[in-house]
Protein: NAD(P)H-binding protein
Amino acid sequence: MTDKTALILGANGGVGGETARALVAQGWQVRALTRTPRAPQQGFSWIDGDALDAAAVLNAARGVDAIVHAVNPPGYRNWNTLVLPMLDNSIAAAEAVGARLALPGTIYNYDVRTITVAKVDSPQQPVTRKGAIRVAMEQRIEAACRRGMRGLILRAGDYFGPRPGGSWLSQGMVTPGKPVRSILYPGDRGVGHSWAYLPDVGETFARLLERDATLPAFARFHFAGYYDPDGTLFPDAIRHAVGDPALPLRRMPWALLPLIAPFNATMRELIEMRPFWRHPLALDNRDLVATLGAEPHTPLDQAMATTLHALGCLPHENRRE
Structure:
């Protein structure tokens, strides 16, 4: 157990919320900067503020040991104007108070047309606008580390978990609040894909931050999660959770999405992610395993059942805690 304190930006979201819970379980005190504060919980306090307000971020960061920057614009809107200013505020606060800044990273930094297994130091050649912003975020953290800040980046595949958020699972493959009658799968036949269970990602962040003193100033790791080698493992986990091995699989109608895109910002961003469903990409987690001894890993069937239960997608008799 510890007496450390962390500031979480994005605690209402998936990575931020799960990291906050994992840190509290490790004995940390957690502050959550949010525009929609809630009642205090054990080891967890909410602070009214906005990640775009530099003074609010700095004031919330006074005395903390770590800042977890897990905040994103909702619905993929205004990424090009909001993401980097928010990160700059977190970097400035981390530098001012001497905290380690932790960032959840993604696979979007990579060109999946030229790489199938990404190491932490593999070339980052993004093929999307969102990927280019992700690379710029990491570059700013690395530059701050050269000035004396401590940073931590944990890259992972597509997130899923008990809270809907912006995951492919809850935004397209199934519909929260409704029984699963079929699976709408975005990937091409036979193409591998990387998935990351949010509670495992949060636990990984907590364990890494517990080892702050032993990490390099600019620490980068890959979270392997679940690699579905041919696009059947993940749908089969849904079938198992639902209890229907014959649950039909439908393919994402990619050709129709451009018709909706002019009227829907989220749809425009999803179309840009198409290469990650046409080409496989796995993450090499050897550095993470060397540091932690093992990557936190919930069995996929258990993770899927917990997720679909929380999303209200399971018949009552199939729901599991």
Remarks:
- Residues 222 and 285 are 5 Å apart (CA to CA).
- DSSP finds twelve helices and 14 strands in the chain.
